[in-house]
Automatic annotation (TrEMBL):
Species of the source: Sphaerotilus mobilis
InterPro entries registered for this protein in UniProt: Cyt_c-like_dom, Cyt_c-like_dom_sf
Listed Gene3D superfamilies: Cytochrome c-like domain
Keyword set includes Heme: yes
Record GO terms (molecular function): electron transfer activity; heme binding; metal ion binding
Name of the protein in question: Mono/diheme cytochrome c family protein
Pfam families: Cytochrome_CBB3
Keywords in alphabetical order: Heme, Iron, Metal-binding, Signal
Length: 125
């Protein structure tokens, strides 16, 4: 069911690719793309290209998909050598970063909103 929905929305995305973006709620793919841009600007120098750690920051490929609370706290307030981003990120950018990290890690889009144990993650296409 969910997979079918996902496939359907990716088809819509493919179909509308290249056309002017209309205003409205961002799709998960748009969120992830916006998050990627924030990541490249603000996080990549410590966390590495595509989340593959360069040895400086935490390896975000291993961040637990169910721990959104910890993500928000660590990013907004900082933790040890990790600077706080609460004063820098614009509203919505935390969600975008989360969507980007989830997309790289292959977290099920639906699972990001659902309780952690609700469904096994579908395998990547
Ligand atoms: C100046 C380097 C630097 C930058 C820039 C940076 N980080 Fe980090 N980050 C770190 C380091 C170092 C750690 C490991 C902190 C520790 O646990 O000691 C870390 C840890 C984290 C963690 C894991 C925290 C936890 O709960 O264990 C997350 C999530 C994270 N960073 C997200 C981000 C995001 C998102 C950005 C961009 C907005 C970002 N970081 C930018 C250095 C950085």
């Amino acid at each position: 069911m969910r997979l079918a929905l996902l496939l359907a929305s990716s088809l819509v995305l493919l179909a509308t690719n290249g056309q002017a973006q209309t205003a409205g709620p961002a799709t998960p793919a748009e969120q992830a793309e916006a998050g990627r841009r924030v990541y490249v600007m603000s996080c990549q120098r410590c966390h590495g290209i595509n989340l593959a750690t360069n040895g400086i920051g935490f390896d975000l490929r291993t961040f637990p998909a169910h721990d959104r609370e910890r993500f928000d706290r660590s990013v907004l307030q900082g933790v040890r050598a990790m600077p706080a981003w609460g004063g820098t990120l614009k509203p919505g950018q935390l969600n975008q970063l989360w969507a980007y990290i989830g997309s790289v890690n292959g977290w099920a889009v639906a699972a990001q909103a659902a309780p952690p144990t609700a469904a096994p993650a579908p395998s990547a296409p």
